[in-house]
């Protein structure tokens, strides 16, 4: 059943892309692959990385989008709910900061292998060195992990598509919450019943006379942070969507109840704190400030931790006043972090690599370390270069959106994604809950940054056109050549940094007597009012003027 599910998922993805539009199919492919396929198993392919659920879902979606984008025939999968598709061009981001982060991850992985070729002797335990083959494997593994990031950036950059991503998260979390409630009542057994194995230690999922659900994920902590992200997604939609507000509020209450019954205190507190910010902090400003502050603190946390600027003792004292058992566990984690950081500082740039070389051993070769947090694992294995590349891609998009919140017209759907990513970033400090969904959201926010940069270029483009210079453009729709929709929206091909032509803007200007707009009409108005130019298709465009002189 395991290999049937893994190798059958590309077929499912192909069916999704043949029947649905690109954004819906992409969201279903990534969410479905992460939530439904078995964890911790895979098939070792020659040369390529291990074929597991993340590889199957991401690569299948990228291949499907590439085939659809390269096809010239009108296809149902190239239109979205508004009748217009806005896929960013190509798979390579345009931002130099993002490209630097990607290069630090990929090149840093290769450099890690080259600087750890010698074996280690830890109390009689021999840890093998890394080879050129390991270098290639590490680079490919890093590339596979970044596939959801590239998907999110290309597919979910526009605000209305980010709203669709929020809806996909909320619905998937609601359905998964029902399965979690079943395991809370009957014990975590779905993975054993469907795939024949349990992915983790059973004793860690028995707490307080009850059970902590796992479903098909690797641990209850991973499930809890996903449900918390789904809670914020449904709450963001409930605060904006007047038509289906009751449904989204009901989903958010269901997920909050599931977090309480699942005994996931950390995820519950994060969901409650950021949910309160969304409810009482306004649509954009306060939640975005909190998200940007969170991202900044997470990015610099290892530096502060190494410089003893984090008040560790006060945190432990507060935990002891709440729960002595949790305080003891928290103190144990902190001691492990200190040991691992001391070991990582011996190879600060590129780390120790894999094969448990970054762990701490005693004189008899016994492993003394417990690696929980994603940040300390990353620094130990790939060094500060890999850490800054990885966490820079995760944190800096939120900071960039906060800096330009006024000029880029940041909407509540983008703020909702920032809040979801922020609680996941906080959870990366004590846990290693970095998943394809984390990269998908980060990629969507990077795409929104690129769209905002295009909007910033619009006034400069007008000035250049008035001076007779060619305006720079970013083609945001070359990958999706849509047909004319039935709703009467003009045919669209690509988006540049120039404004709409005056006559087109006059035709699409809404009257003051129109009734209240629903979500689709509001999004259409947003698209018309953005400082983006919709270029006509070549077959409908007027013939270009020529400067050739007639022969005498």
TrEMBL record:
Region of interest called Disordered, as start-end residue ranges on this chain: 456-552
GO terms of molecular function: ligase activity
Record keywords: Ligase, Membrane, Transmembrane, Transmembrane helix
Stretches with biased composition (Basic and acidic residues): 457-468
Transmembrane segments: 51-69, 97-115, 135-152, 164-182, 220-239, 251-280, 286-304
InterPro entries reported for this sequence: WaaL-like
Listed name of the protein: Lipid A core-O-antigen ligase
Organism: Jannaschia seosinensis
Taxonomic placement: Bacteria, Pseudomonadati, Pseudomonadota, Alphaproteobacteria, Rhodobacterales
């Amino acid at each position: 059943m395991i290999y049937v599910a893994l190798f059958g998922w590309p077929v499912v993805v192909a069916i999704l892309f043949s029947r649905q539009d690109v954004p819906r199919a992409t969201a279903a492919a990534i969410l479905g692959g992460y939530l439904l396929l078995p964890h911790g198993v895979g098939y070792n392919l020659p040369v390529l990385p291990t074929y597991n659920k993340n590889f199957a879902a991401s690569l299948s979606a990228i291949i499907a989008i590439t085939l659809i984008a390269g096809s010239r025939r009108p296809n149902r999968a190239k239109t979205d709910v508004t009748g217009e598709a806005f896929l960013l061009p190509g798979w390579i981001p345009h931002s130099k900061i993002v490209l630097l982060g990607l290069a630090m991850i990929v090149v840093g992985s290769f450099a890690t292998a080259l600087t750890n070729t010698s074996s280690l002797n830890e109390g009689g335990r021999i840890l093998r060195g890394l080879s050129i083959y390991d270098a290639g494997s590490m680079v490919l593994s890093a590339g596979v992990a970044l596939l959801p990031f590239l998907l999110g950036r290309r597919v979910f950059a526009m605000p209305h598509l980010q709203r669709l991503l929020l809806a996909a998260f909320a619905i998937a979390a609601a359905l998964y919450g029902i399965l979690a409630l079943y395991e809370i009542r009957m014990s975590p057994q779905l993975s054993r019943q469907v795939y024949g194995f349990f992915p983790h230690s059973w004793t860690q999922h028995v707490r307080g006379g009850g059970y902590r659900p796992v479903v098909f994920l690797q641990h209850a902590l991973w499930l809890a942070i996903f449900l918390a992200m789904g809670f914020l997604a449904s709450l963001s939609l409930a605060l904006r969507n007047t038509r289906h507000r009751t449904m989204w509020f009901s989903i958010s209450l269901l997920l909050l109840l599931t977090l309480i019954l699942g005994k996931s205190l950390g995820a519950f507190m994060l969901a409650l704190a950021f949910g309160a910010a969304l409810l009482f902090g306004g649509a954009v400003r306060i939640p975005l400030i909190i998200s940007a502050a969170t991202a900044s603190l997470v990015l610099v946390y290892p530096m502060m931790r190494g410089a003893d600027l984090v008040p560790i003792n006060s945190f432990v004292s507060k935990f002891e006043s709440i729960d002595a058992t949790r305080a003891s566990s928290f103190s144990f984690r902190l001691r492990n972090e200190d040991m691992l950081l001391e070991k990582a500082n011996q190879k600060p740039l590129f780390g120790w690599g894999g094969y448990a070389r970054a762990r701490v051993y005693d004189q008899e070769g016994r492993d003394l370390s417990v690696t929980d947090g994603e940040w300390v694992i990353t620094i130990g294995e790939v060094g500060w270069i890999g850490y800054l590349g990885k966490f820079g891609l995760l944190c800096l998009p939120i900071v960039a959106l906060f800096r330009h919140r006024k000029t880029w017209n940041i909407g509540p759907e983008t703020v909702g994604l920032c809040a979801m990513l922020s609680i996941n970033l906080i959870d990366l400090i004590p846990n290693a809950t970095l998943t394809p969904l984390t990269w998908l959201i980060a990629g969507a926010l990077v795409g929104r940054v690129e769209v905002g940069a295009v909007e910033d270029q619009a006034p400069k483009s007008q000035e250049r056109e008035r001076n007779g210079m060619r305006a720079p453009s970013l083609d945001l729709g070359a990958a999706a050549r849509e047909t004319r929709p039935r709703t009467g929206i003009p045919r669209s091909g690509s988006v540049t940094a120039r404004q709409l032509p005056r006559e087109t803007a006059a035709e699409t200007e809404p009257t003051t007597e129109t009734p209240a707009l629903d979500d689709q009409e509001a999004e259409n108005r947003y698209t018309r009012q953005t400082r983006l130019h919709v270029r006509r298709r070549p077959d409908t465009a007027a013939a270009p003027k020529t400067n050739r002189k007639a022969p005498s």
